[in-house]
Structure formats: structure tokens, C-alpha cells
Design brief:
The protein has 117 residues and is α+β, with helices and mostly antiparallel strands. It is built from four helices and two strands. The chain has one domain.
Length: 117
């Protein structure tokens, strides 16, 4: 169903921003509840790394072996992750969830930041 950015746009998703641009300008992230996608529009350059950059998370090491990642990788996919911000009794917004995701991807054990999301 979601095999192109156009298919996402036709289904009401908007605001596609690169990770690089998000890191430089986080004010563009909505401060509201909602669903967000992490997409990989160019699947030609996928590299796996030996160790999770953020190390231990929530008291455990979430690193997966390269062989395990390669075995479970879905080739020719656009959507890497679907996230939801906001639920009853939760304070999270798209801004808080995406900021935690960005921090974790840059090597921060942001587990403490995920407590209320």
C-alpha cells in the first residue's frame, strides 16, 4: 500500500523532512498527537553497523547482529518505522517522540526521555 512517497501523500501524510533537516531545525516537528512514519526513499545504500550507537537502553543491550539484521531486512521497502504519539494518560506529542528517536539515533541512551511516551 505504501510503496512510494506519493502513496503516503495520497493517504493524507504530509511534512516529509529529512533526518538531517530535522536535526538542524527541530521547530518544524508538530507539537501534537499523531502518527508518523520513518521512510527510506533511496534503498540503495543500506549499511548495518556492529553495535547500537546508543549502547545500553533500559538496562539491556538492544544490539542485533548484522546477520540477524540482514536476515530480517525487507528489501524494496519504503516504510522503516511507524510511530504513534499520544494515547490516553500519555503526554507525548510527535515532537517528543521524534526528538527521542533522533537522540537515540545519534548515540544517546534516551530511555529516560521515553518514560511518559
Amino acid at each position: 500500500m505504501y510503496n512510494s512517497l506519493e502513496s503516503l501523500k495520497k493517504n493524507g501524510f504530509e511534512g516529509f523532512v529529512s533526518v538531517k533537516d530535522l536535526c538542524n531545525e527541530r521547530r518544524c516537528i508538530p507539537k501534537k498527537m499523531g502518527v508518523y512514519f520513518v521512510v527510506l526513499p533511496n534503498q540503495n545504500n543500506v549499511d548495518f553497523i556492529e553495535n547500537n550507537l546508543a549502547g545500553i537502553r533500559g538496562g539491556r543491550n538492544p544490539t542485533v547482529s548484522i546477520a540477524g539484521l540482514e536476515q530480517n531486512w525487507v528489501s524494496n521497502t519504503l516504510v522503516l518505522y511507524i510511530g504513534k504519539a499520544g494515547a490516553p494518560n500519555k503526554k507525548s506529542t510527535s515532537e517528543t517522540r521524534i526528538n527521542c528517536l533522533l537522540k537515540h539515533g545519534m548515540g544517546s541512551d534516551s530511555a529516560a526521555d521515553w518514560g511518559d511516551v
